[in-house]
Amino acid sequence: MITYLVTGGAGFIGSNYIHYMFREHKDIRIVNLDALTYAGNLDNLSDIGQGDSYRFVKGDICDRELVESIFRDEDIRYVIHFAAESHVDRSIADPDTFVRTNVLGTMNLLHCAYDAWVQPDGTFSEGCRFIHVSTDEVYGSLTGEGTYFYEDTPYDPHSPYSASKAGSDLLVKSFIDTYGFPANITNCSNNYGPYQFPEKLIPLMIQNALSGKALPVYGDGLNVRDWLYVEDHARGIDMVCQRGRLGEKYNIGGHNERQNIKIVETIIDLLREMLPEEDPRRAGVTRDLITYVEDRKGHDRRYAIAPDKIKSELGWEPLTNFEDGIRKTIRWYLDNEKWLEGVISGEYLRFYEQNYSGREKL
Ligand code: NAD
Ligand code: TYD
User: Fold this and answer.
1) Ligand 1 nearest-atom number relative to CA 136
2) What is the band of 254 on the pLDDT scale with cuts at 50, 70, 90?
């Protein structure tokens, strides 16, 4: 039985990863360390019971004693590090929390994994590995058509979120370069799929359209993101963990660039198609809901990943195309309205008010 320490496993990608891993592997145990911030939700894992193969620990990745005790009590072979503050708009309003969790939290995990795995001769226990899950936003914003982010693209983060992820990436790199620490860094494009908190573009637009609320498109709506179905990301992380070259960095993206406005229009069209005729919400889902609002500060224009390295070295390719993935995602939100109601709590409404009420309509 191989034991994984997954951090942030109650969040969007972490919970999809845990589901994926239990589907794909028989002999594994997962210890999920999550602080259950506004973005963490145990309902995402309600079908996975505590037992021999799964243990949930509520706690902060910055807590040295707690993380040390997990390494003492468990025979951790792999760390899959997802825990982070992850929303750009929140980082603009409150950058400090991002530095604390993303930079100091990663440092603490590195420190504890180093102590647990290092041998008297300075090498590390056979087979151990730390996967740091990061983002393509560390590379900044692309301008020219046909340009892409590669693993050696220089870092040029603009938001406090991407700067804090860049800082954490560089700390992991420093452990690899200085101590020969067994780690990989993965930099992924925008994920979408089930269990995504409705502060991010796709679930926010689904949720607002279903409630007949305005669909707030930042700026001219022509910013481009490169969308990847979350299960494809989970598979990519698993492949890097099993077969990636130690110390290497891998970009994960699906060559699936879309302008934001096209995403919003697709969601409206599909909701109209998928909602039953007799559903009273259907008539209200129209393009009239689209509302252009004041742009995000420092808004990156375009992200696009070249996933050539992970494809040639590990044979990874996305298996879900956008047309299927977005349908599956909308279907999931329509079938899981209780989940959606559960996460739109007081805290969500406070954030929504703070982020959107002050924005001028364009
Ligand atoms: P998320 O916000 O949905 O989940 C983050 C999880 O981390 C939550 O469960 C939260 O409770 C937990 N957490 C936050 N602070 C913590 C702390 N101090 N201690 C312990 N747990 C804490 O995020 P996500 O979208 O699932 O992203 C996961 C990782 O993937 C992040 O590192 C993010 O930077 C990266 N990433 C995300 C995307 C994307 O499109 N969502 C793309 C590329 C990379
Ligand atoms: P988001 O889902 O926040 O991901 P990220 O900023 O990390 O890429 O946003 C995706 C794109 O959608 C980004 O260009 C900002 C834009 N956006 C809107 O136009 N309106 C919104 O309400 C949100 C949340 C995002």
Assistant:
1) 43
2) confident
CA distance 20 to 7: 15
What CATH fold (topology level) applies to the domain 2-192+229-254+301-322?
A: Rossmann fold (3.40.50)
Give me the residue spans of the domains in the chain: 2-192+229-254+301-322
Ligand nearest to the CA of 88: 2
Structure tokens at 344: 């739109």
Evaluated on CA atoms 244, 247, 253, 255, the torsion sign reads: negative
- Ligand approaching nearest to the C-alpha of 103: 1
The Cα–Cα gap between 22 and 18 comes to 6
Q: Average pLDDT, whole number, for the chain?
A: 97
**What's the first-to-final CA gap in the chain, in angstroms?**
57
Taking the model in full, what pTM does it have? 0.98
Tokens 């902060």: give the residue: 60
158 contacts 223 by C-beta, under 8 angstroms: no
Residue among 199, 142, 136, 191 at smallest CA distance from 165? 136
Q: Is 166 in the pocket of ligand 1 (CB under 6 A)?
A: no
Instruction: Among 200, 297, 355, name the best residue to mutate to test ligand 2's pocket (greatest count of ligand atoms within 8 A of Cβ).
Output: 200
Q: Are 84 and 135 in contact (CB under 8 A)?
A: no
pLDDT tens-digit map of 22-51? 999 999 999 999 999 999 999 999 999 888
Q: How far, in Å, from the CA of 200 to the mean position of ligand 2? A: 6
Q: At what angle do helices 260-274 and 201-210 cross, to 10 degrees?
A: 40
pLDDT at position 144: 82
Active site residues: 136-137, 161
Distance between CA atoms of 246 and 176, rounded to whole angstroms? 9
